[in-house]
Design brief:
Arc Repressor Mutant, subunit A, Beta-Lactamase, 6-stranded antiparallel sheet, about 45% helix
Amino acid sequence: MQSVERAVKALKLMVEQGGEVSVSQVGRHIGVTRSTASRILASLARDGLIEQNQATQRYQPGILSLQLASSFGRNIDLVAQGETELKRLSESTGHTSWLGLLSGTEVVVLKTVRGSFPIHFSVEPGQRLPAHAAALGKALLAFKDEAEIRELYARGMAASTSKTTTDVDTLLGMLAAARESGIARSNQELFEGVNSIAVGVREAVSGRAIALGLSYPAFAMGDGGDKPMIDALLGCARELGKRVGDNRWSDGSAG
C-alpha cells in the first residue's frame, strides 16, 4: 500500500510541475532516496503510465495516461450532454433532477438542479448513494445481467429506510421492470417521504452510461399520479439518447 501511495504522490507532483519531473524531484517530494524514487518511476513506466524523455532523462505522461485522459474527456462530454436535459427536466416539472454514474454498488451524484416546487430536495454533487435504493442506481444496474447483480450483492444489501429492498431476487425483478418500461423507481427506499424515477442512457461507441432522475415528495403527485413526471423524463431520455446514439431511446423502443 505504501508503494501505491508513493506512486500517486509522484504522479501528482508531475501534474504540479507541468507534466515533467526528475528522479531527484520525486525523491525529495515523497521523502525517499534517489534509488527508491528511480524504482517507483521505472515501475510506472513499465506499465505505460509514464515514460522517460531520453534527451532530458526526466519523466512525463505515457500513452496510458493519455488514453485515460481521453476517456475522461469523453465522459465529461456525455455528462455535459446530460446536464442540458437535466435543466429542462426541472423547468418542466418543478422538481429536483439528478444526474449520476455507477461506481460498484453505489451511484455517484454528479449534478442536481432544483425546480420551482416549494419543497426542495437535493443531494450535493459527489455524494455516493446505495445503488439498490436509489432510482438513479437502479437505472444503471439495469444495464447489467443477473450474474453481475448477484455477484455485486453477494454480501447483501443494507436498508436505508423501512421500504428499502434488501433481497437480491426482489431487486432483480425491479431491474427487469425497469428494462421493460425504461423507468426505474425508488418509492421512499432511499429517503422517507421521497419518491424518485430515473432512466439510464448509454453512449453507443464507448458503452458508458449515465442516469437522469427526478425526485419529489410522495404527497406531490396529483390525480394523474406521477405520469406527467414520467412523460417529461422519457422525453428528456429520448432527446439525450438520440444525441449519444442509444438506440433504446432513439428508435423509441424504450418507454
